[in-house]
């Protein structure tokens, strides 16, 4: 909706990306405005605060060179909106939803408020359908369920970008491949990362079912705050208007929160933990809670937010608050990465609180949960024995202890370290049984006798690390 434009000329002062305008109390919070300078240049902006004294506007571009005496502000839209269409699939956009793939602007079916509509809790359905990522550690040990929000906790220098691209390429809801889409939003990317994601999506053909929003590191911090909202608005439209099962991948939420802190500092807000604004929990919840399954709607929105923990500190405010809001976490491990294992996901600190809803008989396989528990227990035992060996040496171990020690090595090398291979849940469980079969049956206390009789002794040499022998 385009509104009758009214100009405001009393620009008081500029602080970083913020513009303070006097006598503009009739502007609405969230309204989109144009800022014109004396040279005729126009910048976009959004109203983020309104009082009887002034209105505060976030400028989408740099404020350098903006002359207070000649600057004017005019209203464009009542709230930030995005023009959405099914034709967005296969396209690339910047953080503000403008095409960057050389193709024309999308002809919008609707213009939607990027803040979304509150989802009635009574209308939410229980997430109960398994999403296959093709990554064994996730699918078997930390299963992703349709409608869930399951973050990935990574660290600086770890391959979370490569992991994000692999999930985007491989993810599917078994039986619903034709109506599955990926909305990928990246914030604060370097030029190298932009090139990586662009080439990876095009090379693998994943772009044909994806919508990309790419915000660069040299783009304004304000734009970084809008990028995930653009992506989620697109996802909600595809899911609830066209029946798609949409997987939303948001990376890197740390860059988003840093932009939130930068804007808060420019507004001279009282800082909270580590200088982040006190409302960061609410802001993140506004993003994460836009995942779910709605009664009467065939589609769904599932989220995988990715964040790099500063100093690998899981108690840092960003992962800490994210953990409160979301339903588990997938932890990328620096030790596994140092061994050359990819994807370096450590299943021990990882958790999916909704896993039990979407696995088992009639969904994945009857033995899925028990296999996951057995792998977890055996790997934890193997890691404890590694610490013991570092002190006493292997000579102090029993023969069973040595088998657990070998199990931990095989589990990391062959199960976690699958490389770029795309494994179905059946293949992942087959690899799991191949490794578990190297332990005595008496040690498989979390598996039923029927499962042991059926699967124990499985041979999967041809699947190791994706190499066919």
Automatic annotation (TrEMBL):
Keywords: ATP synthesis, Hydrogen ion transport, Ion transport, Transport. SUPFAM superfamilies: C-terminal domain of alpha and beta subunits of F1 ATP synthase, P-loop containing nucleoside triphosphate hydrolases. InterPro entries: ATP-synt_VA_C, ATPase_a/bsu_AS, ATPase_F1/V1/A1_a/bsu_N, ATPase_F1/V1/A1_a/bsu_nucl-bd, P-loop_NTPase, V-ATPase_su_B/beta. Produces ATP from ADP in the presence of a proton gradient across the membrane. The V-type beta chain is a regulatory subunit. The keyword Ion transport applies. It comes from Deinococcus terrestris. Belongs to the ATPase alpha/beta chains family. Residues 14-68 form the ATPase F1/V1/A1 complex alpha/beta subunit N-terminal domain. One of its GO terms (biological process) is proton motive force-driven plasma membrane ATP synthesis. This is V-type ATP synthase beta chain. The keyword NAD does not apply. It holds the Pfam family ATP-synt_VA_C. Residues 358-456 form the ATP synthase A/B type C-terminal domain. Residues 134-352 form the ATPase F1/V1/A1 complex alpha/beta subunit nucleotide-binding domain. One of its GO terms (molecular function) is ATP binding.
